[in-house]
Amino acid sequence: MQLVLEKRAERSNTIALVSPLIAIGLTIVTMTILFAILGKNPLLALHAYFVAPLTDGYSLQEIAVKATPLVMIAIGLSLCYLANAWNIGAEGQFLIGAVAGSWVAVKTQGTDAGAWVLPAMLVLAAAAGALYALIPAICKVKFGASEILTSLMLVYVADLFLDYLVRGPWRDPHGFNFPTTAEFDPVATVPLLIEGGRLHLGSIIALLVVAVAAILLGRTIKGFEIRVVGAAPRAARFGGFNANQLIILTFAVSGALAGLAGIIEVAGPVGHLQPGISPGYGFTAIIVAFLGRLNPLGILIAGLFLALTFIGGEQAQIAMKIPLDVTKVFQGILLFYVLACDSLILYRFKVVFPNRQVARGTH
Amino acid sequence: MRKSLLALTAGLLLAGSVSAASAADKLKVGFIYLGPVGDLGWTYQHEQGRLALVKELGDKIETTTLENVPEGPDAERAIEQLVRAGNKLIFTTSFGYMDPTLKVAKKYPNVHFEHATGYKRDKNMSTYSAKWYQGRYIQGLIAAKMSKSGVLGYIGSFPIPEVVSGINATMLAAQTINPNIKVKIIWANTWFDPGKEADAAKALIDQGADVIMQHTDSPAAMQIASERGKLAFGQDSEMIKFGPKTQLTSILDTWGPYYIERVKAELAGTWKSEDTWGGLDSHMFAMAPYTNMPDDVKKMAEDAQAAITAGKLHPFKCPVIGQDGKEVECKGGANLADGQILGMNFYVKGIDDKLPGK
Question: Signal sequence span per UniProt (chain B) (predicted)?
């Protein structure tokens, strides 16, 4: 007897709906066993991860703050991926956006520059992110260079460029040579939404981005084009859709969103430019995009969910003295089950008896 | 089944809150770590300090740690999480936590914060650091004695004052033994990256260095020096097991006594914001045993250590000549002022290298 995966004739919508629930259920079972082995109370641990962060305003704000850059970047990436354009370099576009926006903040520091500073930073960051993303897009279209490689390699260029700036020309003159710019002036920081909290305007912008992306993909010809070019390139060509033009467009949009996320992070929670402003948001966003099934609403939920595991992981470390490694194992197991269960949407298990002619399916 | 599960949950939650109540009269002390506690360097030594603290005052306090906290936007949240969990004294153990710690400190005036190696303070935020340059001076003496090629290899992390003052102290010491001593410097641009640190050590040895010194945290350079039959100094922690025939000594961060002192002050209600910058005399760091060297060199090192501890020897005794050949203004009487060392942004004469960003 053998167990094989067989491709379904059509995707199962039932499984598509329940697969995340199955994944979460399996994760909980696995983690319960793991917690029990570690000698921790599984119910209290799961409570710390999933429930405690959702029960007070502070943690909810922190979840939103953490999810904001992830969701913004992932929305842009989903447009690329739907159009079959593989932008892996959102991290670099994020950093370049942060650098370009910070330029305005650094240059106006200590002057009486007015309320135009922050909008200028946002616009410049988006433009810089878009231009930076256009490099791999144009190399792909003109020379056939793999956009996966070029966009990824440009991440390191951006990283080192930022490093150079904060160690050299933009270094805080009163900062004892430490690699950071001075704290941004109030006109150059993203306003907070709630007194005493960290929730900032960027989260609203992220929600707007989700809404616009949902409308673009669901209600417009351009959105239809993106999906057709990705799903059926031949059909798209017959339909007169220009695939190259779409690669350029989706790369530019995703670069702009990553750049915008970059400056919002720097001018918001961080407050100055320094190395290490991103703990890998550009890469984590790839996971968020796929976890959200490249659907704007799905991405919003996936981003919030991943943020929840981060915040919950910290609270579990504090409340239960559970090591950080367990949180990482937890996140890994969760992603593993989600992707494994997702494969059941397109495939199904089949039991094969090699000695008999009759192969019997599960249904 | 469902009812019993609910009852079980309620029971467990209740049990949790009961145990929390009994712990409530203990002082809660929090720690934020940059690396994993098993990095064998910086974070490991802070964890050793915490363990010493628990051993001493374990019946009066409860400690909580958050490890692997990046020095970016996540730091502020991590610190605030510790505050919200009821910690009244919080140690943030890396330079990059300076601004996040300050932000949280302003928000919670009734909680006390201790930030390692920074320079921003507040009514409820102290800073603490060690005069590691004293240890570097001793290493410089040993290195100059032990080097046959007259070339020292130095792996720097970032060109910040703490690291620059370490290089200068090393060279000032080495020049008293061998006026023509040379130092090759490689900036790894990281505190902890065994791969990069190993590459730097290889490059330095290829350039003729036969004594390797490091201001990065992993034992990688020690291992390379050991493979190539050269000598090396450890960093932060005891690294002799990575080079039994290689390690000359190591600067050991010993945070335990400081943590115990500060927590005792907090328990007694006498904690106040301070700027602690302790040296060998106040046990903020220690030197590992002097090994793999002849007895006369060992004696010289021990004498220098005793002299520094007694305050008779200061590595930055005036006059200090800068790289440009001009004498550095002496603001501290007989020695450079603490402020000049804490903000050190120049090389001393004899260093054939350009300070990055200058």
Answer: 1-23
Q: What is the CA radius of gyration of chain A?
A: 23
Residues B41 and B149 in one domain: no
Contacts of B158 in chain A (CB under 8 A): 167, 178-179
Q: Are residues B159 and B141 in the same domain?
A: yes
Per-residue pLDDT of B179-205, as tens digits, reads 999 999 999 988 888 999 999 999 999
pLDDT tens-place string over residues A71-117: 999 999 999 999 999 999 999 999 999 999 999 999 999 888 889 99
**How many domains, chain A?**
1
Interface of A with B in 114-173 (CB under 8 A): 163, 167-168, 171
Q: Look at residue B296 and tell me if it is in a domain.
A: yes
**Minimal-distance CA residue of chain B relative to A313:** B66
Q: Which domain holds residue B304?
A: 132-252+285-310
The domain total for chain B is 2
pLDDT band, residue B24 (cuts 50/70/90)? low
Checking if the pLDDT of B247 tops 60, the result is: yes
Instruction: Check: CB of residue A292 under 8 Å from CB of residue A161.
Output: no
Residues from chain B that touch A270, judged by Cβ atoms under 8 A, are 72-73
Q: pLDDT tens digit string along A15-26?
A: 777 887 888 889
CA distance B249 to A158: 39
Nearest to A179 by CA among B71, B101, B35, B342: B71
Buried b (16+ CB within 10 A) or exposed e, A42-51: bbbbbbbbbe
Measured between beta carbons, the chain A residues lying within 8 angstroms of B108 are none
Tell me if chain B has a CB within 8 Å of the CB of A40: no
Q: Is A262 helix (H, G, I), strand (E, B) or coil?
A: helix
Q: How many CA atoms lie within 13 A of A283 on its CB side?
A: 7
Closest Cβ opposite residue B76 in set A265, A269, A324: A269
Considering the domain architecture, whether residues B177 and B86 belong to the same structural domain is answered as no
State whether B125 and B159 are in the same domain: no
Q: Do B73 and A265 touch (CB under 8 A)?
A: yes
> In this structure, is residue A51 part of a structural domain?
no
The structure's pTM equals 0.83
Is A198 within 8 Å of B357 when comparing Cβ atoms?
no
Position with higher pLDDT, B21 vs B313: B313
